[in-house]
Amino acid sequence: MPAVQAIYAHHVLHGRATFEEIAPSVAEMLARRAEIVSRGLPYLVAECEGAVVGYAYATLYRPRRAYRFTVEDSVYIAADSHGRGIGYALLSAVIMLCEAGPWRQMASVVASPADGVGAASLALHEKLGFQRVGTLQAAGFKFGEWIDTVLMQRALGEGSRTLPGDMPAR
């Protein structure tokens, strides 16, 4: 987790991939991971030649019960490892694992592409079947500027074509 925390800290302190402004400790990152895994959601770490080069996970989209079939993905790549297909491999695996579970929709919130990371994230998500479904203007304020976010979404498995297993037909 120290390597995962270092990757995230870089994005917190230097990028717009997260709107968090203070880098969490390794202990906090471990607690966050434990919460995700306790819900049966994937948390994956990529290594290349013995070094951690990225990580990705899915969390519940919102805490209210009605959102229980929707998850949100997050992908973070080490600063020196962009453009190597790591994000694609990680997010593909997260999608596959979520499709094996009860989840039917995956959302992603991507900072507007004013930098290379934002543009790459939008392209990655579109390549994996996400569609842009909306923009929240000036949703965040970081580094002295307002930042828009793009909301993206893709179906998982059956998506909304059928009812989930715990729902009675009407």
Keywords:
170 residues, alpha+beta
Q: What is the typical, i.e. mean, pLDDT?
A: 93
Amount of beta strand: 25-35%
The largest sheet has its strands arranged as: 1-2-3-4-6-5
Decide which structural class fits the backbone: alpha+beta
Percent helix:
25-40%
Tell me the number of helical segments per DSSP (H or I, 4 or more residues long).
4
- What general form does the structure show? globular
Low-confidence stretches: none
**Count of β-strands:** 6
> Largest beta sheet, briefly?
6 strands, mixed
> Span between N and C termini?
46 Å
Q: Specify Rg, calculated over alpha carbons.
A: 16 Å
**Series of H and E elements:** HHEEEHEHEE
Write a short abstract of this structure.
This protein has 170 residues and is of the alpha+beta class. The chain has four helices and six strands; from the N terminus they run ααβββαβαββ.
